[in-house]
Amino acid sequence: MVCESLHLKEFNTLGLAEPILRALTAEGYTTPTPIQAGVIPAMLDGKDIVGIAQTGTGKTAAFVLPLLQRVHEIRKMPYPKSCKALILAPTRELAAQIEDAIRTYGKYLKSSSAVIVGGAKAGPQIRAMSRGVDILVATPGRLEDLMSTGAVMLDQTNTVILDEADQMLDLGFMPAIRRIMQALPKKRQTALLSATMPKQIRGLAEDFLYKPVEVSVAPQSKPIERITQSVIHVEKANKRQILVDVMRREDIDRAVVFSRTKHGANKLAQVLVQNGIQADAIHGNKSQSQRVRTLDAFKAGKVPILVATDIAARGIDVDGVSHVFNFDLPNVPEVFVHRIGRTARAGATGIAISICDESEREFLRDIQKLIGFKIELDELSATDLVPEQAPEKPGGKRSAGRGRSKPAGTSGRGRARNGRAKPEGAKAGDQRTQEPRKAPARADASPTGENRKRRRPQKSKGRNGQGAQNALNGENGQSGKRNQNSQGSKGGRGNQGGENAGLSRMLGNIERSQRASGRRQSA
């Protein structure tokens, strides 16, 4: 069953307990989002779930609320080192965000929870699990580590949530997730939530979920319509300056800037600060405490610009982000959807600006194909770099350049390929036409067997022999060309023989000169 764009009037129609409803009211929530309206009733009925919704649509509360309802109904102490429910998340930040939601919505319940993530000391996490918890939030890597030491056991776990499954796929967690799933009891409830549904995630659902209810909210992989998008075409060397210029132009409340690499994120934050723009970077190379401080400063508005990598950004759940800047375009189109989902939350509007250099045009085409429309050009775009406005190079011609004289088939900038012009008279794919131009013909390149045989005595290092050899090289170079021209016809043998007779006389003179030189040296 596929449920699309479900809306229910109030949370109190979903069958949630009074303490949970009271916590929701305290937070100002009375109406569920479509993903919540679809997932919560199905989970309360014990069904397996596949939930497809973009970031910022309320997926976290969609599975946290039914888990808390289960804890409220089954007031049984957890077994030591075990958990009743397990939530797997791809990053530390997202795990911490889920833990915050559990505490917020369960503050009027008697429930226990713990977080197990990498990048933090294992000791406190092991102690937190010693008595067991109702809900465990974990990243796959650290969870497997503690399972291998016996600090965590999953034999009593009856519910498992895979949050942001597509991101866990991108991070290479699929083998670990499959091992964890196999360690769980066969009789359990499983919910898989994702912003996109690639084939591998669909396969995971088929392997580990039983007749799941699919809740799909909004067209899959389509960006939120409240986001105004534009793209700036620039030369790669100008990208940083363009980002500075566009930030000065825009009225920014809070912004997230996406960089493809950790080093790039650091460098970009430095450039912004040097240009008087308050910014900080968050990525995997920073310690947990550094990341928490940076994220807290961003949430509090002390740092309005956050430069992030895709992995670190998964933990950013902040309302009021007015702008998203794609400094580097992602090479996976679905990641673009995740990125721009950081803005236009909770009914607000947002702006997403992408900066595209020539090497990223293919990425841009893939993104536009996925989202179903062409992104509007920004006024800062360099006109000559816009693909549809860039002048086409004339077919079959090459502009003059340092590689123009190189023969076809040789390596380097000047090789003729992809339909570019070849030397006159050359056929497509024929590389032999220019080979005589590689170097002047030499005596040792002569095609005649007689010349090869007669040249062997030329190894003498004597002065007279060397001078005669130089003379021979000059003469025989011209002869080699004549020989090549004459070999193509049957009558060329006669001319070749006459020329070879002259060469033989010259070689004889050389040999006599070398012998005389040798006798003088012996004397």
From TrEMBL:
Residue ranges of every copy of the Helicase ATP-binding domain listed in the record: 40-215
Keyword Manganese carried by entry: no
InterPro entries linked: DEAD/DEAH_box_helicase_dom (IPR011545), DEAD/DEAH_RhlB (IPR044742), DEAD_box_RNA_helicase (IPR050079), Helicase_ATP-bd (IPR014001), Helicase_C-like (IPR001650), P-loop_NTPase (IPR027417), RNA_helicase_DEAD_Q_motif (IPR014014)
Domain Helicase C-terminal: 226-386
GO cellular component, one term: cytosol
UniProt motif (Q motif) ranges: 9-37
Span of domain DEAD-box RNA helicase Q: 9-37
GO terms for MF: ATP binding; hydrolase activity; nucleic acid binding; RNA helicase activity
Bias (Basic residues) ranges: 452-462
Location of the region described as Disordered in the Swiss-Prot/TrEMBL record: 385-523
Residue stretches of biased makeup (Gly residues): 489-500
Annotated Basic and acidic residues bias: 421-438
Keywords: ATP-binding, Helicase, Hydrolase, Nucleotide-binding
Bias (Polar residues) ranges: 466-482
Top-level lineage group: Bacteria
Record-linked CDD domains: DEADc, SF2_C_DEAD
Key word Nucleotide-binding present: yes
Protein family according to the UniProt entry: Belongs to the DEAD box helicase family.
Record-given protein name: ATP-dependent RNA helicase RhlE
UniProt source species: Kordiimonas lacus
Organismal lineage: Bacteria, Pseudomonadati, Pseudomonadota, Alphaproteobacteria, Kordiimonadales
